[in-house]
């Protein structure tokens, strides 16, 4: 393989057409330059220069190769420059995944703070349900993700950020919107708007509400909390949701209340893969969050 140093030597000699001048520009001896050119010619299979006692000129083959050599050298130098920029955070891409509930609530302010500090880092966000956030991180579609703490996953690091206590939401004119404290027996009497079966949050809610002879009436299912909020406000039923979407639900016109005995409290945080190194941009973002595993 032709080395970068020999490529540089070839370009310098083509430029100055003098071993003495080219060697001086390369800061090497003339014999070293001559050896580099001869080695390159052997590797390529023919003469690149025609030499005489008075001059050094490109052969037709050498002249054809010169623009290619310059392009290869430019590509090499640009590649090195780009990598240096990545390491100095002057350029880069941070790809992360997040549950929509976190993406709509807390994530924008975190990204804004990081973006102000690192304006040359591009950020890409995949807002998908918790299960797909985990899958995205494991399958390298995202470097990190914001989720409820995974119940079992040996391949992930988890950086806790805060605890989230689930609450009930309802339309303003609902019968439960009274001053008295609510219990599980109170809410179980009414139709529910619920997350789709198979979701982790649906499993947590079902485990609490379905106990003994208690059964829940699922009026409608959805895959996003924003849709659930709209359905609740329209009167389709009540819903159990994480408190981090409470402001979002109230903005839709819903009322939120705590439920005695519900006790669904889950940690929310950041996940990263255990078996992969993170980019400098990802490392800098985690440092900006001041998180500890």
UniProtKB/TrEMBL annotation:
Signal peptide stretch: none
One of the Pfam families matching this protein, by short name: HTH_1
Gene3D superfamilies, sorted: 3.40.190.290, Winged helix-like DNA-binding domain superfamily/Winged helix DNA-binding domain
Key words of the record: DNA-binding, Transcription, Transcription regulation
Molecular function GO labels: DNA binding; DNA-binding transcription factor activity
A GO cellular component annotation in the UniProt record: cytosol
HTH lysR-type domain location: 2-59
CDD domains attached to this UniProt entry: PBP2_LTTR_like_4
Similarity comment: Belongs to the LysR transcriptional regulatory family.
Designated name of the protein: LysR family transcriptional regulator
